[in-house]
């Protein structure tokens, strides 16, 4: 299984005992049928990143760098199981509108 998030530098593959989640950048309830079927609306992430991304506690910049929400700033990244230097291993042009939607509409940009 290959997950799209790496630690520090992008990792081409993750081989571990757990599966990857596939959250959508633009939630299905707000997506057109075409957007729901667009593979660029989904990211293959390790479960801890999947959970935080789905709830808007992390997002990704256009260059793939992880951006944490201030709402989780006081939490231990060790306890969350994430590395703030993580990044997506590949971002294509077609991902950008979906990532922008996530940053503007899903991401929790301020504390509590």
Give a quick rundown of the structure.
The protein is α+β, with helices and mostly antiparallel strands and 112 residues long. Helix content is 25%, strand content 9%.
Can you give a write-up of this model?
The chain is α+β, with helices and mostly antiparallel strands. The chain has one domain. The protein is built from four helices and four strands; from the N terminus they run E-H-H-E-E-H-E-H. It has a two-stranded antiparallel ribbon. A two-stranded antiparallel ribbon has the order 2-3. It is globular, with a radius of gyration of 13 Å.
Helix content: 25-40%
The structure class reads alpha+beta
Mean pLDDT: 83
Major sheet strand order: 1-4
Structure summary, number of beta strands: 4
Query: Terminal Cα separation, in Å?
Result: 35 Å
Which residues form runs of ≥5 with pLDDT under 50? 6-14
| SSE order | EHHEEHEH
Name the overall outline.
globular
Specify the number of helices: 4
The major pleated sheet works out as:
2 strands, antiparallel
Write the layout of secondary structure elements.
Elements: E1 5-6, H1 33-37, H2 47-54, E2 58-60, E3 66-68, H3 77-80, E4 87-88, H4 96-106
Antiparallel strand pairs: 1-4, 2-3
List keywords for this structure.
4 strands, two-stranded antiparallel ribbon, 112 residues, alpha+beta
